[in-house]
Each structure stands twice: as C-alpha cells, then as structure tokens.
Amino acid sequence: MYQDSLGGIRPGSELVTLLVGAVRGISQVFTDRMTAAGFEDIRPTHGFALTLVAENGTTATELGRRLGMTKQSAGEVVTHLARQGYVERKPDPEDRRARRITLTTRGRECVEIIWTELADIQGAWEGAVGADGLGDLVAGLREGLRTLRDGGQIPDGMRQAWWWYA
Fold first, then answer.
1. How far is CA 6 from the centre of its chain?
2. How far apart, in whole angstroms, are the C-alpha atoms of residue 164 and residue 65?
3. Which of 99, 91, 93, 31 is nearest to 71 (CA)?
4. What's the pLDDT at 8?
5. What pLDDT score does 95 carry?
6. 81-105 burial, b for 16+ CB within 10 Å, e for fewer?
7. What DSSP assignment string belongs to the chain?
C-alpha cells in the first residue's frame, strides 16, 4: 500500500500514483534515449505528434484533435518541429485554407527511432514483469480507458489518440 512522505496511508491512490510515476519515468527514459540518438530537441509530446503525422500528412486541427490539445497548442508543436526540420507545411490540395503538415526526411528518420525506442522501453517492462504481466497490464488499462470513454466520463476535447487503442 502507498505511503505518503508523512507516513499516512492513502487507500485507493496506488493506481494513480503508480501511473503518474510510470509516465514520468518512461518520459525521462524516452527523452534520454532520443538525446543519445541525436534528437536532443524531441520531447515526448513532439515524438507523439511526429508518430501521428500520417504518410499523406495532416492538418494542425486534426493533429490537435488527435493529441487532445487546441489547434493553437498543436500549432506551437508544429512550429517547433518545423523549425527543427522534422516537418514542413504545404498547401492542402483539398482545402486551400488549410496547410498540410508532412514529415521531412529527418522527421521520418526520427519516427523510426521513436518506434524502436518505444518498443525497447516496452521490452524492458516485459523483462521486469513478464509477458503475461505486461499483457495483463495492457489489457487492464485498455478496459479502464474503454470504461471511461464509453461512460462519457472524459470530455470530447480530451479524447486523445490513445483512445484509439482502447
């Protein structure tokens, strides 16, 4: 059972505490590995955004929706990625008002490293808890996310890309 720094037991807090710790730990490992691979300007949000840019590109609005952030926030992420040479903005052939965000060669190289690193991080978890333990963890998280999604407990604006995996 979880104990806070004052020694008090907080029943029911284990899941959230452990999930937050896992996300922070995985984020740091991811950032460190991307830096070691030569992509020192890629943070988890940037990496996630890059993996969501489809082969034929996407718009800032769609990317924002998939990331669960506003169009303006997504635009800031895209601006950072464009300045660093990972994406470029091109006119959208289907909508003259929109601009398509597409991966550059550097962006595609980065995405390949991202997928490799994520698989390696997942492999480390599997090594720690076993294949069955990891499978149970993933299945439990999927079911929990489905329950939240289907119960309408999460506002539509927060339906991030990970909902698609639930």
1. 33
2. 12
3. 99
4. 52
5. 85
6. beebebbbbeeeeeeeebbbbbbee
7. --B-TTS-B-TT-HHHHHHHHHHHHHHHHHHHHHHHTT-TT--HHHHHHHHHS-TT-B-HHHHHHHHTS-HHHHHHHHHHHHHTTSEEEEEETTEEEEEEEEE-HHHHHHHHHHHHHHHHHHHHHHHHHHHHHHHHHHHHHHHHHHHHHHTT-S-GGG--GGGGG-
The letter for the amino acid at 155 is: P
Q: Residue 47: what pLDDT?
A: 93
Low-confidence ranges of the chain (pLDDT < 70): 1-9, 154-166
Residue 47: CA count within 13 A, CB half-sphere: 24
The number of residues making up the chain comes to 166
* pTM to 2 decimal places: 0.82
Following CA atoms 106, 98, 75, 79 in sequence, which dihedral angle do they give, to the nearest 10 degrees? 40
Query: Which tokens in the block code for residue 55?
Result: 């082969």
Residue 43 to residue 114: CA distance in whole angstroms = 11
